[in-house]
Amino acid sequence: MAGLVRKSLDSPEEVRPFEDGKGKLELVDAGAGAVGRATFEPGWRWTQHIKPIAGTDSCQASHACYVISGRMHIAMDDGQEDDFGPGDYMICPPGHDAWVIGDEPCVLVDWQGFADYAKR
Protein backbone atom coordinates (compact mmCIF):
# COMPACT_ATOMS: atom_id res chain seq x y z
CA MET A 1 0.00 0.00 0.00
CA ALA A 2 1.28 3.47 -0.91
CA GLY A 3 1.98 6.09 1.69
CA LEU A 4 0.19 9.36 2.16
CA VAL A 5 -0.41 11.22 -1.12
CA ARG A 6 -1.19 14.91 -1.47
CA LYS A 7 -2.09 16.52 -4.81
CA SER A 8 -3.86 19.76 -5.62
CA LEU A 9 -6.14 20.42 -8.55
CA ASP A 10 -5.16 24.07 -8.06
CA SER A 11 -1.66 23.02 -9.25
CA PRO A 12 -2.52 20.45 -11.93
CA GLU A 13 0.14 18.29 -13.53
CA GLU A 14 -1.61 18.60 -16.89
CA VAL A 15 -4.18 20.96 -18.40
CA ARG A 16 -6.19 20.06 -21.51
CA PRO A 17 -8.19 22.87 -23.14
CA PHE A 18 -11.47 22.11 -24.91
CA GLU A 19 -12.32 23.22 -28.46
CA ASP A 20 -13.30 26.89 -28.95
CA GLY A 21 -12.17 27.87 -25.44
CA LYS A 22 -15.29 26.25 -23.93
CA GLY A 23 -13.48 24.90 -20.90
CA LYS A 24 -10.57 22.84 -19.66
CA LEU A 25 -9.59 19.71 -17.82
CA GLU A 26 -7.06 19.90 -14.99
CA LEU A 27 -5.46 16.58 -14.02
CA VAL A 28 -3.36 15.13 -11.23
CA ASP A 29 -2.00 11.59 -11.01
CA ALA A 30 -3.17 10.15 -7.70
CA GLY A 31 -0.97 7.06 -8.05
CA ALA A 32 -3.97 4.79 -8.62
CA GLY A 33 -5.07 6.80 -11.65
CA ALA A 34 -5.87 10.28 -12.85
CA VAL A 35 -8.24 12.56 -11.00
CA GLY A 36 -9.54 15.55 -12.90
CA ARG A 37 -11.44 18.76 -12.39
CA ALA A 38 -13.24 19.96 -15.48
CA THR A 39 -14.69 23.37 -16.11
CA PHE A 40 -17.32 23.37 -18.84
CA GLU A 41 -18.27 26.88 -19.99
CA PRO A 42 -21.83 27.89 -20.93
CA GLY A 43 -22.53 26.70 -24.47
CA TRP A 44 -20.25 23.65 -24.09
CA ARG A 45 -21.52 20.40 -25.58
CA TRP A 46 -19.62 17.12 -25.90
CA THR A 47 -20.61 16.59 -29.55
CA GLN A 48 -19.25 20.03 -30.48
CA HIS A 49 -16.24 20.48 -28.23
CA ILE A 50 -14.86 17.01 -27.44
CA LYS A 51 -16.11 14.80 -30.29
CA PRO A 52 -13.55 16.32 -32.71
CA ILE A 53 -10.81 15.32 -30.26
CA ALA A 54 -12.24 11.88 -29.32
CA GLY A 55 -13.26 10.83 -32.83
CA THR A 56 -16.26 8.81 -31.57
CA ASP A 57 -19.99 9.42 -32.08
CA SER A 58 -20.62 9.70 -28.32
CA CYS A 59 -18.46 9.86 -25.21
CA GLN A 60 -17.00 6.42 -24.52
CA ALA A 61 -15.53 7.30 -21.11
CA SER A 62 -17.08 6.01 -17.91
CA HIS A 63 -17.41 8.76 -15.31
CA ALA A 64 -17.69 8.85 -11.51
CA CYS A 65 -18.18 12.56 -10.78
CA TYR A 66 -19.11 15.04 -8.10
CA VAL A 67 -20.65 18.30 -9.36
CA ILE A 68 -19.23 21.36 -7.60
CA SER A 69 -21.15 24.09 -9.42
CA GLY A 70 -23.31 24.71 -12.46
CA ARG A 71 -25.58 22.22 -14.20
CA MET A 72 -25.09 19.55 -16.85
CA HIS A 73 -27.57 17.49 -18.87
CA ILE A 74 -26.58 13.92 -19.78
CA ALA A 75 -28.27 12.08 -22.67
CA MET A 76 -27.41 8.38 -22.92
CA ASP A 77 -27.32 6.61 -26.29
CA ASP A 78 -30.14 4.35 -25.00
CA GLY A 79 -32.45 7.37 -24.47
CA GLN A 80 -32.09 7.81 -20.71
CA GLU A 81 -31.55 11.47 -19.70
CA ASP A 82 -31.03 13.43 -16.49
CA ASP A 83 -29.77 16.76 -15.16
CA PHE A 84 -27.03 17.07 -12.54
CA GLY A 85 -26.16 20.04 -10.36
CA PRO A 86 -24.21 21.14 -7.29
CA GLY A 87 -23.84 18.40 -4.69
CA ASP A 88 -24.83 15.58 -7.06
CA TYR A 89 -22.71 12.46 -7.42
CA MET A 90 -22.99 10.91 -10.88
CA ILE A 91 -22.14 7.52 -12.32
CA CYS A 92 -22.24 7.78 -16.10
CA PRO A 93 -21.39 4.76 -18.27
CA PRO A 94 -19.93 5.02 -21.79
CA GLY A 95 -22.25 6.06 -24.61
CA HIS A 96 -23.54 9.56 -23.88
CA ASP A 97 -23.68 13.18 -24.93
CA ALA A 98 -23.60 16.01 -22.39
CA TRP A 99 -24.07 19.78 -22.33
CA VAL A 100 -24.05 22.69 -19.92
CA ILE A 101 -27.43 24.01 -18.83
CA GLY A 102 -27.77 27.75 -18.24
CA ASP A 103 -25.24 30.56 -18.11
CA GLU A 104 -22.99 29.33 -15.28
CA PRO A 105 -19.92 27.13 -15.87
CA CYS A 106 -20.31 23.53 -14.73
CA VAL A 107 -17.38 22.40 -12.60
CA LEU A 108 -16.99 18.76 -11.59
CA VAL A 109 -14.41 16.34 -10.26
CA ASP A 110 -14.10 12.90 -11.86
CA TRP A 111 -12.25 9.96 -10.29
CA GLN A 112 -12.70 7.57 -13.19
CA GLY A 113 -13.07 8.85 -16.73
CA PHE A 114 -10.61 11.66 -17.35
CA ALA A 115 -7.28 9.85 -17.94
CA ASP A 116 -7.69 10.03 -21.73
CA TYR A 117 -10.52 12.61 -21.91
CA ALA A 118 -9.93 15.43 -24.41
CA LYS A 119 -6.46 14.05 -25.05
CA ARG A 120 -5.10 15.07 -28.43
The CATH homologous superfamily is called Jelly Rolls
| CATH domain fold name | Jelly Rolls
What is the number of independent domains?
1
CATH C-level class is Mainly Beta
CATH architecture: Sandwich
The helix-strand sequence is EEEHHEEEEEE
Strand ordering within the main sheet = 1-2-3-9-4-7
Specify the overall morphology.
globular
Structural class: mainly beta
Helix content: under 10%
Q: C-alpha Rg, in Å?
A: 14 Å
Report the β-strand fraction as a percent range: 35-45%
Termini gap: 33 Å
Number of β-strand runs: 9
How large is the count of helical segments?
2
Mean pLDDT: 93
Largest sheet: 6 strands, antiparallel
How does this model look, in words?
- With 120 residues, this protein is mainly β.
- The protein has a single domain (14-110), classed as Jelly Rolls, CATH 2.60.120.10.
- It has helices spanning 46-49, 51-54; strands spanning 14-17, 23-29, 34-40, 63-69, 71-76, 81-84, 89-92, 96-101, 106-110.
- The longest helix has 4 residues, at 46-49.
